[in-house]
């Protein structure tokens, strides 16, 4: 699968923090990438949205650890991301925030069963469930997910699912890395999310999509006021 350089994409940045506390990381973030100047620079290159998540300490289904942080950004084109991170100033800021990080660009999985629903007013909390795995064939994996996701939609919504999207890793020119798939679920109910991910009626069928063990993580809105857009 391929995508046009003008296509909208998602950027995930998962990293291990240099600051010794989440509050210190929040302060650094808001003074750098989250400052008015930082936001304006990112937006000028096509960064449409930026959200910050911390590992969910309540979840027993997640491999995310204390001291990590997750950024999920929506860009209107992948070239803007490359231009943004080629800036030495931006690279220096990233070095102050993360001792190690994985930044990956993802394109929407064509043919996937993806959807976004309105969140109930009474449930303002947000939780993110990610599943990432290598696949032999993106088309085959997307078809497997679509079959499972279509059948699970009603139960998932009843349990608090707000949106479900599937993406395929966008490799750099000349890169020969394995195909990877990323699922992003946004929930407004932690208990419902946990119940759904434990429901083997829906989850078992996804196993055939993966070429190796999937990496599942659960995240929640980071405490305190983080600059988001």
Describe this structure in words.
There is one protein chain. Mean pLDDT is 94; it is low at 1-5. The chain has helices at 22-31, 36-44, 78-85, 88-97, 138-158, 190-198, 200-203; strands spanning 9-17, 47-55, 68-75, 98-108, 115-116, 127-134, 161-169, 180-187, 215-221. The protein has two domains: 9-107, Alpha-Beta Plaits; 115-221, Alpha-Beta Plaits. The radius of gyration is 17 Å and the shape is globular. It has an eight-stranded antiparallel β-barrel with strand order 1-3-2-9-6-8-7-4, surrounded by five helices. Helix content is 31%, strand content 31%. It has seven helices and nine strands, in the order E-H-H-E-E-H-H-E-E-E-H-E-E-H-H-E.
Give descriptors for this structure.
disordered N terminus, 229 residues, Alpha-Beta Plaits, 2 domains, 7 helices, 31% helix, alpha+beta
Task: Write a concise synopsis of the structure shown.
With about 230 residues, the chain is of the alpha+beta class. It is built from seven helices and nine strands. The chain folds into two domains: about 100 residues, Alpha-Beta Plaits (2-Layer Sandwich); about 110 residues, Alpha-Beta Plaits, CATH 3.30.70.
């Amino acid at each position: 699968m391929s995508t046009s350089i003008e296509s909208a994409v998602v950027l995930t940045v998962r990293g291990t923090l240099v600051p010794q506390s989440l509050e210190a990381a929040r302060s650094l973030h808001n003074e750098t990438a989250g400052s008015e100047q930082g936001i304006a620079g990112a937006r000028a290159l096509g960064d449409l949205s930026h959200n910050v998540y911390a590992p969910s300490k309540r979840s027993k289904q997640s491999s995310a650890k204390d001291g990590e942080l997750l950024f999920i950004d929506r860009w209107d084109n992948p070239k803007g991301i490359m231009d943004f991170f080629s800036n030495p100033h931006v690279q220096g800021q990233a070095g102050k925030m993360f001792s190690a990080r994985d930044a990956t660009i993802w394109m929407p999985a064509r043919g996937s069963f993806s959807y976004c629903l309105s969140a109930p007013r009474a449930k303002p909390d947000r939780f993110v469930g990610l599943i990432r795995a290598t696949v032999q064939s993106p088309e085959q994996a997307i078809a497997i997910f679509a079959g499972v996701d279509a059948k699970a939609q009603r139960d998932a919504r009843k349990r608090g699912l707000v949106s479900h999207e599937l993406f395929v890793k966008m490799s750099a020119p000349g890169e020969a890395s394995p195909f990877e798939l990323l699922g992003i679920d946004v929930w407004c109910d932690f208990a419902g999310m946990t119940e759904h991910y434990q429901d083997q009626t829906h989850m078992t069928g996804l196993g055939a999509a993966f070429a190796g063990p999937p990496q599942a993580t659960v995240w929640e809105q980071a405490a305190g006021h983080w600059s988001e857009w």
